[in-house]
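Exercise 7.
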Amino acid sequence: MQALTLGLPAAAAGLAYLNGRHAISYDFTLFTSLLSATIGAVFHERHDDINLFYVLESWAKSSRGNHPWIIFHSKSWTYAQAYEMILKYGTWLKSRGVEKDEIVAMDFVNSEVFIWVWFGLWSIGAKPAFINYNLTGKPLLHTIKTSTARLVLVDENGKHKFSEEVMAEHGFMARAPDADMPPGRQAKYEFETDAGQVLSSVKKRVKGHVQEAAEASKLQSQNLEIIFFSQALEDYISSLQPIRQPDSSRSGQKRHDMAMLIYTSGTTGLPKPAVFSWGKASLGSRFVSNWIPLKKTDIMYTSMPLYHSSASVLGICTILRAGSTICLSLKFSHKTFWPEVRSSKATIIHYVGETCRYLLSAPPTPLDKDHCVRAAFGNGLRSDVWQPFKDRFGIETICEFYSATEAPSGMWNRSTNPFSAGAIGRNGTLATLVLGNSIALIRMDPDSDPPQPLRNTDTGFCQICDWNEPGELLYKLDPANISEKFQGYFGNASATNSKVLRNVKKDGDAYFRTGDLMRWDREGRWWFVDRIGDTFRWKAENVSTAEVADAIGKHDAVEEANVYGVRIPHHDGRAGCAAIVLRAGLQNTSTLESLASHLKKELPAFAIPLFVRVTRNMHTTGTNKQQKHLFQQDGIDVNRVEQSGDALFWLKGPTYEKFKIGDLQRIEGGGVRL
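Solution. The predicted structure, written as tokens, is:
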């Protein structure tokens, strides 16, 4: 008996060691969440109810029906109330002639109406195309045209973006609206471009891909009906009878079929319509609800835009799966963020991109820890912000993920301690063994532009990275059925094909290219290095913009940093340039000297930015992701930089000094070697 008593603590200690060493319990949660989500998606496909409208209907008709699903502007709607409203919107959409499988474009700010329209479309078997409400002019009309939608539903506040003058400027001719239009405003347009001419030019460009050429021609000749959602129209729809369409209206949907179109952020060009499938919507929402894990009493707060998959699928749909509550904000603001979190009693906050940095940069208050938040969930939390954010706001758990709207998989890191702080993903020993074959990390040729994979000269296969070596992350696809996991970009076969890499590990295999450089350490942690194309070459060395930005962000005077490479006359490669926002009152000479000293300690000589651009406004997408291309266009052109209201400095000895037009002229004349 005494031996048994002494042995139990030792056995418990041994099990605890094994669990800590191999992350057994961590992997168990990951696997069970994934298994449950996968089985659920297969089950609902076979029962022909994979449309998430059925999840809402199930909650609405259960004892959960009176539980709040949505909170917006201090008003709440239960599952039963939301279901009834969505049926009314479905009824109205049917009256406008919307058919099964038809794509309808939505240009809305965050609100309950966004959800009524979205699920109203799903209730009648139609597909929404989410339009970024920040877009105007050419990018806006491009997203609508590539969706092929003939009906565009627009928030009343967005009416100015569709004036006749704007539409005419981009080739749309106004037509007379219907006389029987119910309350609300309507406009009709026809695109005037010569479809035959477009077909001819596209055929040339794609070298005989007639299918894609015909699709492009069809896009160019589309008619548009634009309906603006006034309060009068919303009131009219609310007065309608909530008619449920028969199951046949939603039948025949498979996991790989389109649930909606969600556009890429367009950081390097015009946005592309990514096909978001029912399988991803079903599996992703169920997985996240189990992985966080969500309780039915949880309230998730998001101020991220619903046109993005992070807030819509992993926010709204995840909460729907769990039967919990989501609190929506109109948009992100550090002034309203915490007051809305406190008033809603939110237990989980949702972030994207630089959200947490903006919150951290606001002045501290005695209310910083006066909230009910137990976890923060999102993607893009930089390592230099991670722990300071947790400490200041008293948040125990960070649920960080890595993925992209079009990607077939993702990375996950539920972190409660410093071990995985800053990592975008984490796997234990078991997960590494099981999932290792579904991913690849390959070496890239640093001298190619754009960067290309390095291949073995004997086998022709890609070179696989060693531990802690940066490389492009790839996800395995079925080479005989690419669309099973990767549905690609709607109507854009060339963009779709560019994301597929073949003959990676063996003849005929296929992988999805993420376009991101990662490194994987022996502890199973995944670290984001940079976007391919953001990393640049200087002094024959690769420089990671993300790692340099992290180093700059650790300086107390820097509120935000955006690092990129710039061309220098008479020099090979690109020199580092950092656009920085300095904290109020710290825009002075001593700050620049201190920054130079800090970077010389933190970075190797080749990675220290030679130029610093002090700016007041950082270019970001609607999801708080930094944009580099606008800064890159200015380069070190002093006139362009100063015309924007910014100031350019360059590294001279122990500090950064003002970069003047005379300095640029000396470089252009070959009189300066950097």
